[in-house]
Amino acid sequence: MVTTTVTLLPPSTNGGDGRSLRAALLSATTDGIKAQHSISLFNKLRDISQEEQRKRSLLSTPEGREMLVDEENSGNERIGFPFRVKDLKIMPSVSDTKAMLTTGSDLLDLEEDLFRIASSSKVGDQSKEMIMKKVDRGQTRAIVDEMKLAIVDEIELHENAMVAEIREEGRQHEDAMVAEIREEILEKFESDGRQREEATRQREELMLNQMKTLHIELLVVTLACIGISFVALLHLKK
User: Fold this and answer.
1) In a 10 Å sphere around its CB, with 0-12 CB exposed, 13-18 middle and 19+ buried, how is residue 148 labelled?
2) What is the mean pLDDT of residues 40-61?
3) Contact, 122 vs 39, CB < 8 A?
4) What are the transmembrane regions (predicted)?
């Protein structure tokens, strides 16, 4: 297999022996030779390559080397090689760069829809490839409309899922806040209860201390009265 790298130059290169990027507007022939352009030349190269591949078969020589031999003329010394074109480059001419192809006004909407679908991450590669392979404009428009509806449905599903997720997160956050507030209230009640219990205990201790003090004072007064009475009794007996 011989692989050739081909570069098609514009017609203004090397004295005008290049190829046009597009076919001429008129398909009339000049001096019996039809005007050629790069796409036509590429198609001819492709057809010749396919024809050569059909006419040749790969045979093995006694020496173990592989050669390509013409099946119909195996006795001929000429050996033909099938080939394929690789890295084909088409160089535009000055007229090509000045007069670029533009999209028709009737295809602008379809082109915009195709661009949105091609740049959308919600459309699979297989669906994009199927759209690009469609030649019929009506089929392409039908597929584009169908995929637009599918994208809209998917966006709505995604939005509904996001809304449901946001609602669920909001509910969980609200439940967490309610639980936190409830826990704070319980802790405050428990703290207030402990403070009230501590104040009650302190008051009870203070009352007990006061009662003990009163008992001691009463005992002292009682002993003093007894002592005074005993001294007075002794004095009267004398």
Assistant:
1) middle
2) 64
3) no
4) 214-236
Which of 180, 22, 26, 46 is closest to 101 using CA atoms?
A: 22
Give the model's confidence band at 26: pLDDT under 50 very low, under 70 low, under 90 confident, else very high. Answer: very low
Q: How far apart are CA 74 and CA 63, in angstroms?
A: 17
CA distance 2 to 58: 13
- Report how far residue 139's alpha carbon sits from residue 170's, in angstroms, rounded to the nearest whole number: 46
Q: How many other CB atoms are there within 10 angstroms of residue 12's CB atom?
A: 12
DSSP code of 164?
H
Task: Pull the structure tokens for residue 68.
Answer: 């390509």
Distance CA 144, CA 138 (A): 10
Site of tokens 């009662």: 211
Specify whether the CB–CB gap between 82 and 49 falls below 8 A.
yes
Separation of alpha carbons 27 and 25, rounded Å: 7
- The dihedral of CA 34, 39, 41, 46: what is its sign? negative
Contacting residues for 127 by C-beta, under 8 A, at least 6 apart: 147
- Work out the mean pLDDT of the chain and round it to a whole number: 69
Per-residue burial over 75-109, b if 16 or more Cβ lie within 10 Å, else e, is: eeeeeeebeeeeeeebebbeebeeeeeeeeeeeee
